[in-house]
Amino acid sequence: MMSAFDRQRSVAPAGFSRWLIPPAALSVHLCIGQVYATSVYKNSLVAHFGTGQTAIGVIFSIAIVLLGLSAALGGTWVEANGPRKAMAVAACFWSAGFAVGALGIGTGQLWLLYLGYGVLGGIGLGIGYISPVSTLIKWFPDRPGLATGLAIMGFGGGALIAGPLSRQLMSLYDADYDPSVASSVASGPALVGLFLTLGVAYFLLMMFGALIVHVPPDGYLPPGFDPAAVKRRSLVTTASVSAGNALRTRSFWLLWVVLFCNVTAGIGILEQASPMIQDFFRDGGASTVSVSAAAGFVGVLSLFNMAGRFAWSSTSDVIGRKPIYMVYLGVGIVLYALLASVGDTATALFVLLAGVILSFYGGGFATVPAYLRDLFGTYQVGAIHGRLLTAWSAAGVAGPLIINGFLDAQGKPGTLTAAAYRPALFTMVGVLAVGFVANLLIRPVPEELHEPERASLRTKEAE
After folding, report:
1. What is the 3-state secondary structure (H, E, C) of 47-59?
2. Cα 57 to chain center, whole Å?
3. How far apart are the C-alpha atoms of 272 and 416, rounded to whole Å?
4. Which residues in 131-155 are b (16+ Cβ under 10 Å) and which e?
5. Are the beta carbons of 66 and 119 closer than 8 angstroms?
6. In 3D, which of 252, 254, 234 has the Cα closest to residue 243?
7. How far is CA 460 from each of CA 8, 86, 323, rounded to the nearest angstrom?
8. pLDDT digit string (tens) for the chain, length 463 residues
């Protein structure tokens, strides 16, 4: 049955529109972007299992770590088998994660939730995230930043859909659950219904993307595209570099540091967003920002995150990948310093500064596949991208640790003020400075690490 998803059966026929590829990729990324909406039912899981916030929060951490590991280990397999089979496999793992998680909730076995949503779901996240990247870049050699931005913005926007949808489903399955009340929690059966419904819906949508995705025919070039123009651009190669050789280059590891620093800084705000805005505007012990307003702020950050993935990655097609990362990191340094020093003077200023920082966070994710294509070519760019995403896993641990470590030393939650955040925010300034220097040091890949032309041609024929 899976032979229907083989690469050779997914070669685009004559007249196929390349603009069908971004919606196919978007259908997968919108589904797996649900991982950012786990906080919606976190309190319900805490109440159902009778455990603490940390025990439930570990599920998200497991999923993100498995995302990076599966992307790194499965990247070469994705390249060899093509996007259609990879998307189908991702759909199976992602939906199976919800099914096993539902079984864990229904039987009261927390370890099954770890295994399901954390491990199986995390594998689906990693394979699904990288599955369309190489194909998008091959269909859009003239605008790789725009193409990957169109798809990867779905990962940032998935939570915008999954959050309200999850609340409505829980209220449908549990009449006593009120989605407008922050303290309201859903029952165990409602959580089981939620997980099963999402698992089925996401499976169908991801399989739809798998069925419409196609790889370009050999030698495909979009109308009007001149490959010679690419050769004249700085830090852009038309040669091919294997995933194994990419790991031997200084540029790969410098870019790993760049992504790690950019993600660490962004995720530090994203993870702490709701209590952070309340703490920054505390008057006499009580915050002037309501719980509902703080929730709205999280939604605004999601919009900035999603918009940045498309807008900034598209801009990189015009000004180049290295300059756009100088903006992410250099301007980010200034914005973090302003947030720490004057962010508590006005709510609008705080929201604007945090929003632009989050747009750089999202833009960094969407731009990095095109940066890899510039440095290493299209030969095994998906596999290289998978290995680079281990920086995301590392940052997913480091960012919250830095923020929470400083905050724990400052006092108890609900009593903190803007001053308590300043040491953590200025630490992020230093993190971004390290990334800025690393980006400046990136150089073209030495020619001795390029693949021989004949090997590249054989690979294209095999595809």
Report:
1. HHHCCCHHHHHHH
2. 18
3. 12
4. bbbbbbbbbbbbbbbbbbbbbbbbb
5. yes
6. 252
7. 12, 19, 31
8. 567 778 778 899 988 999 999 999 999 999 998 987 887 888 899 899 998 877 887 888 889 889 989 999 998 999 889 999 999 999 999 999 999 999 999 999 999 999 999 999 999 999 999 999 889 998 998 889 998 898 888 887 887 888 889 989 999 999 999 887 767 889 999 999 999 999 999 999 999 999 999 999 988 888 888 776 666 666 788 788 999 999 999 999 999 999 999 999 988 777 778 788 888 888 767 788 887 788 788 788 888 988 999 999 999 999 999 999 999 999 999 999 999 999 999 999 999 999 999 999 999 999 999 999 999 988 889 899 999 999 988 888 888 888 878 887 877 766 778 888 899 999 999 999 999 999 999 999 998 888 886 444 444 444 4
The SS3 call for residue 11 is strand
Phi-psi region at 209: left, alpha or beta (left = phi > 0; alpha = psi -120 to 50): alpha
Contact 64, 129 (CB under 8 A): no
Here the tokens at position 237 are 């190669």
**Please, are residues 159 and 41 in contact by the beta-carbon 8 Å criterion?**
no
Taking the CA of residue 93 as centre, how many other CA atoms within 13 Å lie in the half-sphere pointing to its CB?
25
- Residue 45, token pair as written in the block: 């899981």
Query: What token pair was written down for 281?
Result: 């505007």
Cα separation of 289 and 347, whole Å? 9
Question: Residue 311 and residue 150: Cα distance in Å, rounded?
Answer: 9
Tokens of 91: 């759909």
DSSP sequence for 221-287 = --TT--HHHHHTSTT--SS---HHHHTTSHHHHHHHHHHHHHHHHHHHHHHHHHHHHHHHTEETTEE
CA dihedral (404, 309, 131, 378) positive or negative: negative
